[in-house]
Amino acid sequence: FRSPYQCSTDFRLKWLKEDFLPYLTHWETTVMLREGYFSSAAQRKMLLSKETLLGLKITVSSFLELVPILFEIPGVTAFLSEKLCQDPLEKFFGCQRQRGRVNENPNMTKKRRQQDTSNYSKRQEKAGKVQTKANTAN
Which helix (H) or strand (E) holds 53? Predict the structure, then answer.
């Protein structure tokens, strides 16, 4: 399972789609329909949290959509799934939150506008047209 994906018809993708995702749904359904009286707390202990289950389903579904797209790119002959990382994306949004730009529903238009504004401010600062703490200390 650690070898690179060589094509969009890799058996592991088929396993994720046809076995793993249905297993998660079946597991959840089985626990909820289990015979006998089980409190909500007891049922929750038999499952992963709802957020974790949803996260797994979204991640696997997204991955299943991503791999075929990657193999459409000219020159892509292999893909290592372990190289996927969302840390840069989390870092970007973490920086936005630190700046006080909270947005619970960001989209690409708003992101570009923020980036353009940020780049404009940096250009103005470099040109000496905007005073900042850094250039007023001199």
Answer: helix 50-71
